[in-house]
Amino acid sequence: LARLLSPKDYGLIGMVAVASNFIVMFKDMGLELATVQKAEISSRQISTLFWINLALSVGTMIVLMALAPAVSWFYGDSRLTMITIVSATGFVIGGLTVQHEALLKRQMRFMALSAVALVAMVAGYIVGIAFAWYGFGYWALVFSQLAVLTADALLVWIICGWRPGLPRRDTGVRSMLSFGGNITAYGTVNYFSKN
Prior knowledge:
195 residues, mainly alpha, 77% helix, globular
């Protein structure tokens, strides 16, 4: 990829990453860790958390899409608007995997998670190299990232085997939402202290 793309292509993706890296903290609101740390958890609770995660991911995508013109204006490059909008769809893809990955971590299936990450990364590189080879420039990096997320989602769903049910109100997830909120607040403070 480094031989097929220019430093400017990487720079464009880096500009979008400044906005998306901050917003990504709010994608799951710490609910993955809430699922992992809970001593006992029911399928109804996990299903409810899955739909909350998906709603948060859709909300995060909409926020980033709404910020796309501002990112473009800030850096003075109109290409960033479309890059930001297309990249934002990755939040929804990632939101589909939060509870599945949490379940695999609860089951201590770290080798499976590592294998999924490796295969997804290879799939992303193949897509990125193919797009770069055919002259898509910076879009090769965008679609590479989306390919990683898509491959990860497909593999995690297959390996985990769990399927979400309908969300319910009386599942007792309030304490988990509170825990996740505290994790997110810590992450926000940590982000600003480091950046």
